């Protein structure tokens, strides 16, 4: 009262009367505003045609019964009939515990601030919780505008049919960018995991499927759908695995939002035609849980490889490599003259180096993929990883445990191969300890370091493939391919080492070359897509490397790369081919190298012309093609030399060939390309998602893992046993090719 008295005392005479007039005018203005608006007790399912302007506001009152045991969705639809209104119509829905507002026409923005205007808008209301078994709830729809001209519109509020989704029951609906849809799913008793699938009848427009907890507001607009929950973009197919433990209410919303532009899914179009809508299909699945003398042989010796460093243990009288290695006819004894202890240590370095590489490579990979998985779990962004969402079985924080578990075969079979090699090495060392003549002077020299490196590489392939499948995508595909390059390179080195033990590449040279391959793989992933300059440079390097390696192999390292190499090449071509018309001295070696150059030049031309997006797989194909070519040459030359293949090795070859055939069948399925993330667009990759085909747990790609691990193990056994028939043959009677 004291404050009021002091305030009142400051008023000038006559101010009280003026104040009363002002209050009266304000009251009159409110009364006029109320007179401008009209309230209608509206009905569900009825379309109301009306006009609104700045002087007239319409309020529609709706009353309906809400039951705790039954969820009925309510949808508000507004269609603007006036063309090019000067001001938008504002629609405000006032509920018990929520307010929803939107304008018509609705303006959505795309990339580069492009605007898209929609005159039809539809929104589903979020149902507030009920305190009793059932209760009447009243909500209002206010329609207003600031336009002085009348704007015609249509309004309809209706119940959503099939708002609550059922397990294993398909349901069709229509959505547009301005009319998103969402539905509710409640976990039935005994169901802990479901797969939510959405299929569209047309490839575009791009859409987003989101899984959100039951709470208001629901984020169902293009600009906020990624705020909470899990989501993934789609063109025609999307699937998300949902677990009961992630939703305390044992229920969730499935939201489908259509994007304004296809570029949001990586599509080529800047926008798509503004069609009235497109139909999608929503589906939830329940998911439960001989011999002849070398000198008398009428053939010429063949292939070689990269030479080691110049360190040698030969006596001075025998150290002239030009005399030994340029002989027209070579036997294994000519290339197995170094001290066995020195060579054993040299080849053991292969194992220790790859073990070191594995540790330093695997630890940051594991750290990175854990970070990837954490980001997916925290943000709910399902576009980060290329899973087969139709057969993705989560385990704890891991989204697709089946793709990880199927890599166990690589690890176990790699370990088994290491044990087999260890047993063979123990047997061989015991024979050497007994001074067994066959172990000392017969057969292919036994060096086990490369075998240990191969077994370790197979185990690491399993570990890194499992890491890759924690969150598979194109950028980290090298995790899965790095040790594939290693395996291909080590197999070629081992095949060459068998008959060239003294001049095989050192571990440092071999791993440096493989590091260069991985370096180009990274460059191809980053810069290779559609980059003509990159493909020109890579093709030139590929061809030059092929020529240099061919020269190194043909002359077994007895040549020099210096300023006079071109002059010597011209001189040799002139004297041997033009003046004397003589053929190459080493026919077999030349045949292999010509075939190898044809294959590699063809692959280089294919890459330059086609420029495949999946550079990592292209690079791997180069290594595999060269390995298969060399292996076929080795087998043919072995049989041509009068050698035989023992029964066990022959069975391994036939068995491995059959398994490789089945494995490649599953590898070249579209699903494998999807899991590897090599298609490039995550929405397009989901077109190749497939159901589980083995034990309702494993998909096509898991079968590729199983079969390829067996096939690699069989291939290693072939390399280990294919020359067992020579164990009793003197080395000066075993030919080099």
From TrEMBL:
Major site of localization recorded for this protein: membrane
Membrane association type: Multi-pass membrane protein
Localisation per UniProt entry: Membrane
GO molecular function: double-stranded RNA binding; RNA transmembrane transporter activity
GO cellular component: lysosome; plasma membrane
Cleaved signal peptide residues: 1-37
Keywords: Glycoprotein, Membrane, Signal, Transmembrane, Transmembrane helix
Family: Belongs to the SID1 family.
Official protein name in the record: SID1 transmembrane family member 2
Species whose genome carries this gene: Denticeps clupeoides
Gene of this entry: SIDT2
């Amino acid at each position: 009262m004291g404050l009021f008295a002091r305030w009142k005392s400051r008023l000038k005479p006559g101010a009280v009367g003026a104040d009363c007039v002002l209050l009266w005018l304000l009251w009159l203005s409110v009364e006029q505003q109320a007179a401008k608006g009209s309230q209608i007790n509206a009905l569900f399912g009825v379309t109301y045609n009306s006009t609104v302007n700045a002087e007239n506001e319409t309020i529609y009152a709706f009353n309906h019964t809400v039951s705790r045991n039954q969820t009925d969705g309510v949808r508000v639809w507004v269609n603007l009939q006036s063309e090019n209104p000067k001001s938008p119509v504002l629609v405000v829905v006032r509920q018990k515990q929520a307010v929803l507002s939107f304008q018509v026409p609705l303006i959505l923005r795309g990339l580069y601030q492009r605007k898209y205007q929609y005159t039809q808008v539809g929104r589903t209301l979020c149902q507030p919780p009920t305190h009793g078994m059932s209760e009447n709830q009243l909500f209002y729809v206010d329609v207003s505008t600031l336009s002085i001209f009348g704007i015609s519109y249509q309004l309809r509020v209706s119940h959503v049919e099939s708002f609550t989704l059922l397990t294993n029951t398909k349901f069709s609906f229509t959505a547009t960018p301005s009319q998103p849809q969402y539905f509710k799913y409640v976990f039935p008793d005994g169901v802990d995991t479901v797969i939510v699938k959405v299929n569209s009848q047309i490839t575009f427009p791009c859409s987003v499927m989101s899984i959100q907890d039951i709470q208001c507001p629901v984020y169902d607009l293009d600009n906020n759908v990624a705020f909470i929950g899990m989501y993934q973009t789609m063109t025609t197919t999307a699937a998300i695995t949902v677990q009961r433990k992630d939703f305390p209410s044992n229920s969730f919303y499935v939201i489908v939002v259509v994007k304004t532009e296809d570029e949001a899914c990586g599509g080529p179009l800047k926008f798509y035609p503004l069609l009235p809508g497109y139909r999608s299909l929503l589906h939830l699945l329940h998911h439960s849980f001989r011999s002849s003398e070398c000198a008398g042989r009428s053939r010429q010796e063949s292939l070689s490889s990269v030479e080691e460093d110049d360190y040698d243990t030969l006596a001075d009288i025998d150290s002239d490599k030009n005399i030994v290695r340029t002989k027209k006819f070579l036997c294994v004894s000519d290339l197995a003259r170094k001290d066995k202890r020195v060579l054993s240590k040299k080849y053991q370095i292969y194992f220790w180096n790859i073990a070191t590489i594995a540790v330093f490579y695997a630890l940051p990979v594991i750290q990175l993929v854990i970070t990837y998985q954490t980001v997916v779990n925290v943000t709910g962004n399902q576009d980060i990883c290329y899973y087969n969402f139709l057969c993705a079985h989560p385990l704890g924080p891991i989204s697709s445990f089946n793709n990880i578990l199927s890599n166990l075969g690589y690890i176990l079979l790699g370990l088994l191969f290491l044990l087999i090699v260890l047993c063979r090495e123990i047997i061989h060392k015991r024979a050497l300890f007994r001074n067994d003549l066959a172990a000392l002077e017969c057969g292919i020299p036994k060096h086990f370091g490369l075998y240990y490196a191969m077994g370790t590489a197979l185990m690491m392939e399993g570990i890194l493939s499992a890491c890759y499948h924690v969150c598979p995508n194109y950028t980290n595909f090298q995790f899965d391919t790095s040790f594939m390059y290693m395996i291909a390179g080590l197999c070629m080195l081992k095949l060459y080492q068998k008959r060239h033990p003294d001049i095989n590449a050192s571990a440092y040279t071999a791993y440096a070359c493989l590091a260069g391959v991985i370096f180009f793989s990274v460059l191809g992933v980053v810069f290779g897509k559609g980059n003509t300059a990159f493909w020109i440079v890579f093709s030139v390097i590929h061809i030059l490397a092929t020529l240099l390696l061919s020269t190194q192999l043909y002359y077994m390292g007895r040549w020099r790369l210096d300023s006079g190499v071109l002059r010597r090449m011209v001189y040799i071509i002139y004297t041997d081919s033009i003046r004397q018309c003589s053929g190459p001295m080493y026919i077999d070696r030349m045949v292999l190298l010509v075939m190898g150059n044809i294959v590699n030049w063809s692959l280089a031309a294919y890459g330059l012309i086609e420029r495949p997006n999946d550079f990592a797989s292209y690079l791997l194909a180069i290594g595999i093609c060269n390995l298969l070519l060399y292996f076929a040459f080795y087998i043919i030359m072995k049989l041509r030399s009068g050698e035989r293949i023992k029964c066990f090795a022959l069975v391994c070859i036939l068995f491995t060939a059959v398994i490789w055939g089945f494995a490649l069948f599953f590898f070249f399925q579209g699903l494998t390309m999807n899991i590897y993330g090599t298609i490039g667009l995550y929405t397009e990759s989901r077109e190749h998602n497939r159901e589980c085909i083995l034990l309702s747990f494993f998909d096509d790609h898991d079968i590729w893992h199983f079969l390829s691990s067996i096939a690699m193990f069989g291939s290693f056994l072939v390399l280990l046993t294919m020359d067992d028939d020579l164990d009793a043959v003197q080395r000066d009677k075993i030919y080099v090719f």
